[in-house]
Design goal:
The chain has helices at residues 8-18, 24-45, 54-74, 81-89, 91-113, 118-148. The chain is mainly alpha-helical and 149 residues long. It has one domain (18-148). Helix 1 packs across helix 4 (81-89) and helix 2 (24-45) runs antiparallel to helix 3. The radius of gyration is 17 Å and the shape is elongated.
């Protein structure tokens, strides 16, 4: 079946499935290191409060999703050919689940750990999610263009 003949539901399922092929253990390690570094820098400043955890949590989440998503797009294993082919043909759609996950989790971190209200937390989380979507989409598009040549 061609990609154009797939339903929206099938495309969403493939997008979610393509998000699972990334190097998530490595991404968790990178996120933990970045978050701990940001927390250490915040602790040196001497401003101790619960709000000082929101920024490092946001950085950790961003790098976790960035490494997992971009690493998944750059992988060359052939274990899931159909899934890999779909992700290569739809780089922006395959980046959406990670950007959405970052948006939700970062918003919760800003809301629960920071001083932001609901709308403030949403807008604070929107920028990193947009940057993640842009970076992952561009990396996927470049990979798609290079494989077609």
């Amino acid at each position: 079946m061609a990609h154009d003949e797939m339903s929206r539901r099938e495309n969403r399922q493939l997008a979610a499935a393509s998000a699972t092929v990334g190097p998530w253990r490595t991404a968790a390690g990178v996120g933990a290191v970045v978050g701990a570094t940001a927390l250490g820098i915040g602790a040196i400043s001497g401003h101790w409060s619960l709000g000082m955890l929101a920024g490092p949590a946001g950085w950790a989440l961003f790098f976790f999703f960035l490494v997992g998503t971009v690493g998944g797009q750059l992988r060359r294993d052939t274990s899931e050919r159909r899934l890999r082919r779909w992700a290569n043909d739809h780089p922006w759609q395959s980046a959406l689940p990670a950007a959405g996950g970052l948006l939700v989790l970062d918003m919760l971190a800003q809301l629960l750990l920071g001083d932001a209200g609901l709308f403030g937390a949403f807008f604070l989380a929107l920028l990193p999610a947009g940057i993640l979507l842009a970076v992952a989409g561009i990396v996927g598009s470049v990979k798609q263009a290079r494989t077609k040549d």
